[in-house]
Amino acid sequence: MQTTLAPAFQNRPDAQEAAALLRSCVHCGFCSATCPTYQILGDELDGPRGRLYLMKQVLEGDRPTAKTRLHLDRCLTCRACETTCPSGVQYGRVLDTGRQLVNEQLPRPLLSGLVRRLLAVWLTGPLFAPAVAMGRLLRVLPAAQAAGVVPHRLHARRMLLLAGCVQPALSPNINAATLRVFDALGITLQVAPDAGCCGAIRHHLDDHDGALSEARRNIDAWWPAVEAGAEAIVLNASGCGTMLHEYGHLLRHDAAYAAKAARISALVRDVAEVLPALVGQLAPRLRERQPQRVVFHPPCSLQHGQKIRGAVESMLTTLGAEVLPFADAHLCCGSAGTYSLLQPQLSRELRDRKLAALGAPRPEVILSANIGCLTHLAGGTPLPVQHWIEWLDAQLA
Ligand code: SF4
Ligand code: SF4
C-alpha cells in the first residue's frame, strides 16, 4: 500500500514508520478471514485491510471523520490479522499511530473522552482494589478466589514477577498460585513494590504519554534487580507480556530509557515460556490423579501478540490433562482490555460465540492465561474458568 505522507507528517517518526509498514501490504485480503469484527459486521472497513486503507488516507492528509474513528474504535487490537498476513504487516503498530493522528485532528466528544480518562485512572489507580474487595465481600467471595498461603523460601534461582494492577484485585489467587508453583520448582519470584500497571490499559485508551510514564516507573523499579542478575521478568497475564515486549520499541527515542527499555523487553517471559522446560519434574506427582477434561482458550495477547502457540496445551497434556480441541481457537473472546466496556454489543457477541465453541467438547473446566479473558468468559458460563497456573497449583496441592 504505497503511502505518500502529507507535508504535516513528513517529519514525524511515528508517521514515517506507519507509512513504511503500510508499504508491505499487498491488498490480498487474507487477513479479513480471521478478523472477528469483519466476521460479525461483514463490512470491509471493519476488517484489517479496510482499516489500513482508512489510516493510509489519514497519513496522506485526508481529514478523519467520525466514521473513520468508528471503524478504528471497533478494532479489538487482537492482532489475529498479523498472524494471518503473508506479508508480515505489523498492523498493531500502524493502528497505534492511526488512532493517535485521528485523535489529534478530531478530538473525541466530551463525554467519550471523559469516560476513557476515568477508566484509565480508575482501573490503574489505588481505589480499584478496595472497591473490588468490597464488592466481593458483599457477594460473599467464593472459596476458589482466596489467595491462600504464599511461600517465603529463598532459592538460588530468582526472577522478577509483575504483580499487575487489575489482576491482583480481581483474582489474587493467580499470583499466589504462580509463587507456589515456581517455589515447587526451586525458583523465587520477587515482586518490586514500586512496579505497577504495565501501561497497556492507558496505551489502549490512547493515553500514550501516560503509558510511557508507567513504563519508565516500572523500569526504574526493576532496574536494581536486573543489574543484580535477575534471570527474567515473569508475567502471568499475557496482555501485560505483550505490552512489556513493546517497551523497547515505545521508548526507542528516549535517550535516558531506550537501552534500559530494550533490556527489559529482552528479559520478559510469559509463564508459558518458563515452565515447559521445568514441569516434567512435577508430572510424577500428578500422574495418579484422574485426568481432567479441559479446554484452553489462548488469549490473543498470547497467540498473536507474543506468538506463543501450543506451549500451554502441550504442557497440560504432559501434566495429565485431557486437552480438548475446539473450533476457531484463533478468534478473540471479545474481552480485549477495555473493549468489553466500550463496545459492549460486539464484545458480548464474541463472548457468546467463544463460549459456545469452548463448551462444545463438554469440558469440566475452561482454562486461559489473561485476567481480561478469564473475567469476561466467567461472566457468561456456569463452568469454572481458571488461569491454567491456578489449575496446576490446585493439582499439586
Ligand atoms: S486487530 Fe483483530 S479486530 Fe483489529 S483488524 Fe486485526 S483481526 Fe480485526
Ligand atoms: S493479509 Fe496482509 S498483505 Fe494482505 S491485505 Fe491483509 S494486511 Fe495486507
What are the key terms here?
397 residues, alpha/beta, Fumarate Reductase Iron-sulfur Protein, Chain B, domain 2, Rossmann fold, 3 domains, 4-stranded parallel sheet, 22 helices, 52% helix, binds iron/sulfur cluster
Would you summarize the structure shown here?
The protein has 397 residues and is α/β, with parallel strands linked by helices.
Structure report:
The structure is a single chain. This protein is an alpha/beta fold. The protein folds into three domains: 7-105, Orthogonal Bundle (Fumarate Reductase Iron-sulfur Protein, Chain B, domain 2), CATH 1.10.1060; 128-274, Rossmann fold (3-Layer(aba) Sandwich), CATH 3.40.50; 279-396, Rossmann fold (3-Layer(aba) Sandwich), CATH 3.40.50.1860. It contains 22 helices and eight strands. Strands 2-1-3-4 form a four-stranded parallel sheet. Strand 7 (365-368), helix 21 and strand 8 form a beta-alpha-beta unit. Helix 3 crosses helix 6. The protein is globular, with a radius of gyration of 21 Å. The chain starts with 12 loop residues before the first helix and ends with a helix. The relative contact order is 0.10. The structure holds iron/sulfur cluster (2 copies).
